[in-house]
Amino acid sequence: MTTATTRRSDRRISPVFVGIVAVMAVTGWATWTGFAEQPGLAVFLFVTAAWIVSLCLHEYAHARTALHSGDISIGAKGYLTLNPLKYTHALLSIVLPVLFVIMGGIGLPGGAVFIEHGRIKGRWKHSLISAAGPLTNVLFAVVCTAPFWLDALDGVPAEFQFALAFLALLQVTAAILNFLPVPGLDGYGVIEPWLSHKIRRQVEPFAPFGLLAVFGLLWIPEVNGVFFDAVDAMLRGLGIDEIRTYCGQNLYRFWTETDQFCSVSQ
């Protein structure tokens, strides 16, 4: 087995990740119970910590799948510890996605764990490695939306519902963006093994700019409107209305004026 060549320390969960989970748990409890004097600050810390946890799990899914597909170098790189500081580009993987949530409320795809693709044989394995990350966002979205489509929110404080709805929006947007077949994103990584060598060579120079191109397109009002209409439709299908996601983002941005509707809506 490929895992036999990885040391136990290579798979030990990082204290950094444990600390992030602890922040998520404590601030989630504070939001649920109303313990925090400033619910907006508690929502901000809870959603941010949960978002970082999902980013770590996204990269872990890539790494773990690569390990079982043949890249036994993954463990030595520290990717199996869930430590975000071990990623090849911590700025792209953690800092930028968090900043985009703060600025615009969108789940920007992260990256990257360095995978030695030469160690991996078989196109299906390469595709699965790329798909593993965004599939984790899909799973996270299912967990976040489950209380809504299961009608299991009786007695749950409004602030926690809003926070969960906003977190679900981030996961849905991240999954959609990650699955776009754009060079540099996971969606392209899924189809790349099936393309001809000539096409791959032609596309390769554009990979570093794929994410920037997507970001630029989302600045176009018409494109942005279509994108978020699709996201809202998907969330409505999962039982989350626009009011909850709006109030979640409004509370998250605690440094701005809180909409009074969100502070009293149940």
UniProtKB/TrEMBL annotation:
Record GO terms (molecular function): metal ion binding; metallopeptidase activity
Topology in the lipid bilayer: Multi-pass membrane protein
Superkingdom field: Bacteria
Keywords: Cell membrane, Hydrolase, Membrane, Metal-binding, Metalloprotease, Protease, Transmembrane, Transmembrane helix, Zinc
InterPro entries to which the protein is assigned, alphabetical: Metallopeptidase_M50B, Rip2-like
GO biological process: proteolysis
Cellular location(s): Cell membrane
GO cellular component: plasma membrane
Cofactor(s) required, per the database record: Zn(2+)
Similarity annotation: Belongs to the peptidase M50B family.
Protein name: Site-2 protease family protein
Originating organism: Streptomyces sporangiiformans
